[in-house]
Write a structure and sequence with these properties.
Elements: H1 8-15, H2 23-38, E1 42-45, E2 50-51, E3 56-61, H3 68-80, H4 94-103, E4 106-110, E5 113-124, H5 127-130, H6 136-146, E6 152-157, E7 161-166, E8 168-176, H7 178-184, H8 187-191, E9 198-203, H9 221-235, E10 240-244, H10 246-261, H11 273-294, E11 299-300, H12 302-323, H13 330-345, E12 348-349, H14 350-357, H15 366-375, E13 379-383, E14 388-392, H16 394-399, H17 410-416
Parallel strand pairs: 1-10, 3-8, 3-9, 5-8, 10-11
Antiparallel strand pairs: 1-2, 4-5, 6-7, 12-14, 13-14
Helix pairs in contact: 1-2, 1-9, 2-3, 2-11, 10-12, 11-12, 13-15
Length: about 425
């Protein structure tokens, strides 16, 4: 059966062009949808283990900025229309998660042989309803299941005894805010294994303002939606191993050598070493999704790998932004917010500074916050003939010179549309 669209991800981004969230958020929502239909039916064989196209995608934005739930929901509504796809509840304990995955086990025909698989996609507009980061057992279960181990996955508990899942596959997409991450995610989840298995997509601002999206829809909007679902159904029929063509394999070898011999500065250090170790895995998972979005041939081209590489690099700043405040003290965060506010104002009087801080800092900590910012060299005291001011220093500008949210991915999608057809 022929596809309706040469590139499903590009078509999906066009389908969502009148929503306010950036293309990045819709693109990775589309990635989650394709992953949901591919499941464990396709893989990349590494001999000792396989990689499967599953993802932990976390959309991060301040409340109301990019309508996280809407961005996620549009893609997931398409996924729900595909027969055979199992979507779990948005709120669950780790025990119920394991039981639910066991309940959806089914026999899948792959190239004439039947295999038991337990595949489940989770969707949550609020990450906090899906995952309790203070429940160490839940985090450990999610870390272990992400790897998609072959055979029976077993877990013992006092209440339920032995729980088993045969050939597990789990994927999720969820939304959250920077403040929630800061308040609820322990530092151990960052330096540990969970965050390194996630893709964070940061929504810093609306890409445009659209009061009434329906008024902008094209006449074929609803027909296009049906065609997007039909193409997802076509992708759900893909079975078997993805293999690299020669050019892709050469690129992959060179890329891997460069990753470990010329590590990017922003990924150095303990906090992101786990992500660095799994970047190759993320890249090949995305490459499988890229290939499935464009063709039925089970061949990964160099263009699939280069697109996946660019996508990861484009959202690595998002990861740094999303996790920036995790594990930091409240007083340090308050001080940073304070000097950022002064930087936007240019300079303020001490009375203005006190009035600002009374909204965020305990009264007995106001003087300490101001003196800390001055002692650290972030603020200077400027005296004029009529008044005294607090002004930002160059060190303040360096402190706040963090990565900005990733650029819009639309150019990457345009380039990927020019990929040649595979030579098979």
């Amino acid at each position: 059966m022929s596809r309706h669209f040469p590139n499903w991800l590009q078509a999906y981004c066009t389908h969502t062009e009148h929503l306010e969230a950036t293309t990045n958020l819709h693109f990775f929502s589309g990635v989650a949808a394709i992953a949901g239909v591919l499941r464990r039916h396709v893989w990349f064989d590494q001999g000792y283990f396989n990689w499967y196209p599953n993802f932990y995608i976390i959309i991060v934005a301040k409340p109301g900025i990019v309508n996280k739930s809407t961005s996620i929901g549009v893609a997931m509504d398409l996924l729900r229309e595909v027969p055979g796809v199992n979507i779990g509840p948005s709120s669950i304990t780790w025990q119920a998660l394991v039981q639910h995955m066991g309940n959806v086990a089914e026999q899948v025909d792959i190239n004439g042989e039947f295999h038991t698989q337990s595949c489940l996609t989770f969707v949550a507009s609020d990450l906090g309803t899906l995952i309790d980061f203070h429940n160490r057992e839940m985090i450990d279960v999610l870390v272990d299941l992400w790897d998609g181990k072959t055979g029976s996955w077993d877990k013992m508990s006092k209440m339920s005894g032995k729980e088993s899942i045969v050939n597990p596959w789990i994927s999720f997409i969820a939304g959250t805010t920077p403040a929630w991450l800061s308040d609820n995610v322990p530092e151990g989840a960052i330096g540990g294994g969970f965050a390194s298995r996630c893709i964070f997509v940061y929504g810093a601002e609306k890409r445009h303002l659209v009061a009434y999206p329906k008024n902008r829809l094209s006449p074929d909007f609803y027909e296009r939606r049906l065609r997007l679902i039909a193409d997802l159904e076509q992708m759900s029929l893909l079975r078997g191993e993805y293999k690299l063509d020669h050019e892709a394999r050469v690129f992959g070898e060179e890329w891997y050598h460069k990753l470990w011999t010329q590590t990017p500065e922003h990924l150095r250090g303990d906090r992101f070493e786990g992500y660095l170790a799994r970047k190759q895995t993320h890249m090949h998972k995305l490459a499988m999704v890229s290939a499935a979005a464009q063709r039925d041939h089970m061949i990964l081209l160099k263009e699939d790998l280069t697109l996946a590489e660019h996508l990861l690099e484009s959202v690595e700043n998002d990861m740094i932004l999303a996790l920036d405040r995790v594990g930091r003290s409240k007083s340090g965060i308050n001080t940073e917010d304070f000097v950022a506010w002064i930087l936007t104002k240019g300079r303020v009087t001490r009375d203005e500074a006190v009035r600002y801080l009374t909204r965020y800092v305990e009264l007995d900590r106001i003087d300490n916050t101001i003196s800390t910012a001055i002692s650290a060299g972030y603020l200077s005291q400027v005296q004029t003939a009529t008044a005294g001011f607090l002004a930002p220093t160059e060190r303040c500008r360096e402190l706040l010179g963090k990565p900005v949210a990733s650029p819009d991915l639309i150019q990457s999608l345009v380039l990927s549309a020019d990929s040649p057809a595979p030579d098979v």
